[in-house]
User: What shape does this take?
Amino acid sequence: MINEQIKAMLEERDMIASLANISALLYDQYDRLNWAGFYFVRGNELVLGPFQGKVACMHIPFDKGVCGLTYRTKASQVIHDVHEIEDHIACDSASRSELCVPVIVNDTCIMEIDIDSPFVGRFDETFEQEMLQAAKDIASAYLQHHWSL
Assistant: This one.
């Protein structure tokens, strides 16, 4: 159901408007979250994009944290307990689990979906699969609408 709603929001031609509504949808429709949003690849770092939740880190280097690992590996990261990650970047000290999914266009990570929860083990395979589908749909919309970062 959520992926159909995301697809409908991706009909919007303005990237920021579309992603802002998607972050609001994620934050509203999933329980036990404290952050849901996007980081854009800009230059040599990840830069904060549209989000819902508490104040967030505005810049994340590619070599740090879960988001950096997602960028480097081009693979989703499901983190059961962020306190077990040595270089986790704690933008919000209440966060305990994290899901980060790359949005890949032409074999390049252009942005990431990042979702945090104050509960250990919040994210499961079903949640990850839904966000992997969302990432594919965002990549398609990026190409279709000729979005740029």
